[in-house]
Amino acid sequence: MSDATSGTGTEGIGEMRALCWHGTNDLRVDSVPRPSLVNPNDAVLRVTASTACGSDLHIVDGYLPTMREGDVLGHEFVGEVAETGEGVEGVEAGERVVVPSFIGCGACAYCQDDLWSLCDNTNPNAEMQEPILGDSTAGIYGYTHAFGGYAGSHAEYIRVPHADENCFQVPDELDDTQALFVSDAWPTGYMGADFCDIEDGDTVAVWGCGGVGLMAQHSADLMGAEQVIGIDRFPARLHAAREHAGAETIDYTEVDSVLDRLDALTGGRGPDACIDAVGMEAHGTGVAHAYDRAKQQFGLHTDRGEALRQAMVACRKGGTLSILGVYGLMDKFPLGILMNKGITVRTAQQHGQRYVPELLDYAVEGELDPSYLATHEFSLEDGPEAYRMFREKEDGMIRPVFRP
Amino acid sequence: MTSQHTQRGERESSKERSGRSTGRTDSGRGRRVAAGVAGGALLLYGVARRSVRGVAAAVAGGWLLNRAIRGRSSGGGSAGWTAAEERPAKGAPRDSLDVQRSMTVERPAAELYDRWRDPETHEQMWAHFAEVDQIGEDRQHWAIAGPRGISLEWDAEVVAADPGEFLRWKSLPGAQVPNEGSVRFLERGDGEETEVTLHLRFDPPGGRVATTVIDRLDLLPDAAAGKALRRFKSLVETGETPTLEGNPSARGQGDLL
Ligand SMILES: [Zn+2]
Ligand SMILES: [Zn+2]
User: Fold this and answer.
1) Among residues A302, A326, A347, which one ends one of the domains?
2) Which of A151, A239, A349, B211 has its CB surrounded by the most CB atoms within 10 Å?
3) B253 CB within 8 Å of a chain A CB
4) Does the CB of B173 have a partner CB in chain A at under 8 Å?
């Protein structure tokens, strides 16, 4: 099933293959119904590349309470437009497009303010978030029903709401792999660096050298940071940080003290900005963390909290703490450090639509080619094995890419 | 159906909460853990249902989780909480069948008033809750279909209208569960956005039949009102409401809540 340019076969009839969640550590490739146009502003895409995200591992591990058995995973993808609804004006069948993971409507106050992941109009299950967040977020593909319940991109086809706002044409100069990371990993990392208002001479330290952490480092370098420091413990990722992202690295298992090392690298001041991209929980949820806590008291992931606390202590006085990892409802948050050091905290889920056009330009100009994140390729049928390797970070894997 | 019992239990504890109580401000950790797990389960149960019941369960589940997180005991004493925190979380279930919800929409009040009175918009915004048919210029027929063939129907009439600003409607005499509602449109700033406040009130006569009907329908005006406003906003701002209709999964097609 690779050819469905238009008209035939995509009207909701027929089946497709998709990587589905069936429970904790239970991923299967199933035949599921093909999506079709539902709302006037929808498009249906034939997915040409889709990647796993660190935040998916939380789902695989069974920590997110609003997954349902049989949900299709995946939220970072590129595809070819198969058909469009009657309200769609700027997107046509046959076009190659990249789509941000959080879905925007373009019309609400948040979208108009370029705060796309806060969109008011794209989460069909908004009422499930309100009791916890006090509000609701935008919807996202393949990432729990509290976050919208939309079927994910590890499938042959996907329905994209508000196509005019969410489908960005991929320039001919870029291949699918280059465009793929403009869906989420790069704009998330770029946003994290953007939060730091980088000036000449600045040092930016990034905790985490996964897809988002590397993109944050690379973006900080692009924005003119004098010194970028990546912190992790996996050799392949540290290597990528040095080789591609223009960073110096600290292997935190190899040094006595990360703080001392950062002090030494900054003349005792500490980094001007610290970005937390550990575990890449950028789409993690309050729900997830509440559930974690409820289930395991204070959760398995104390190391993540530790990284964040370390970043606060490391950060120079008056500096910026940019949080891309999510600490939902963590209550051991040492606010006193932030307060007494006058640190500014900035954070968000990715406002992808705000950044995609400029990132595509960067890629075309050759200033940043994110395709080094794609260390491994798989067919959809090998999805469960790909996720197993991804979790274990086996064979130096940074991101696995599926070609449905 | 065990989940139904859970739901009923939750409702009882919500009653308990609103009563005056001297409970501790911090529930024990074990209790919080239990509430969190139950909340997660209810959320799951909620999304598995394709009905108002489902919404109710999901909301209740979210509220339980919320309580688990905040460490508030079901007794809910007020010491240590500010007035703002005393306000029940949005969408939290309560005893009263009286609810007010507000939402800000990026359109002038006059336009919103007209859209509210447009039968097509009106029908779509309530579709998750009831089937609303226009049966006269100022009259609508409302029908809620519940599980096991139970249903609730009534005719309502507009009793006050102030174009561009305010609308009030009321069920006609003879309604099994008398009810009324109103909506107010308050423009902000330069008039590009409007605060829309919806008020709904259901007055069960107290008879056994009506109470049973309400109970069986899981009539939660809070959830219904919030979702209706949200749907109205989406329709007006984007021309559609977000939906999981036809959503593919290994369960088949469609994920309507
Ligand atoms: Zn992601
Ligand atoms: Zn929006």
Assistant:
1) A347
2) A151
3) yes
4) no
